[in-house]
Structures are given as structure tokens and as C-alpha cells.
Amino acid sequence: MVTRVKTSAELFNAAVGRQLRAEIAAAGSSIAAMARDAGVARSALDNYVTGKRAIPVPVVYTVCAIINVAPHLVLARAEERLSADIASAPATITPLHRRPDVAPLGQDVPEVAFGSPLPHDRDTDDLYS
């Protein structure tokens, strides 16, 4: 199974979402009530605060205005949250196994891109480069 590594932008978006959720809860509201007050769908706000969707800047500003918290404070707290998460997360190292069809280190084996039965002067591959 291959796991896609999240970009730094995706990680920050998720941290902002978690921080918004915490700020909404600290203000004594719920996601459903905040969605109604902000004029966005509850499912959309839930996707934003869980990091499933990118949070539009106007939504951040609207929620911050409703809970009376400056948007730059939410972003700064999210940055602190992300830094703490990154510092505490152990690195995952995946061992790479040598492929059997690749020559071992130090063994120089001539390679051919493909086996053509035509002599080089009659091979038309070079005509198209």
C-alpha cells in the first residue's frame, strides 16, 4: 500500500482547520451552529475543520468575526500547533529493496534500450530525434 505524503500546504490547512474547530468550541458553539451563523453548509464547514478541504479565506474571516478572534491569531496558533505536531511525530523510514533486474553495485553491464534486428544504419529511430 502506498501512502501519499501530504504537502506542507495541506498540513498547514489541516492545522488551521483543527485550530478553527478549537476556537469554535472555546466560544461555546458547535460546527452546526457556526455553519448556520456563517452562512455555509454544515458539511462544508466540517470538511474545512477536519482538513478534508482547503479552507477559503473568507470563511476563516467570517468565523473569526463571529467568535470575535482576530484571524491572524488563529493562523499563528495553527502554526504553533503544526510545529508542535511535526516536532513530536516520528519519521517513517521505508527500506528500499534491490530489484532483481538491476545489476549489483560496481558491476558494469552494457545495456540496450531495445533489441532491434536491424543494423544501425537501417534503424529509423534516429531519424525522428
Automatic annotation (TrEMBL):
Residues 97-129 are annotated as: Disordered. InterPro entries: Cro/C1-type_HTH, Lambda_DNA-bd_dom_sf. Residues 20-74 form the HTH cro/C1-type domain. Residues 119-129 have a biased composition (Basic and acidic residues). It comes from the Bacteria. This is XRE family transcriptional regulator.
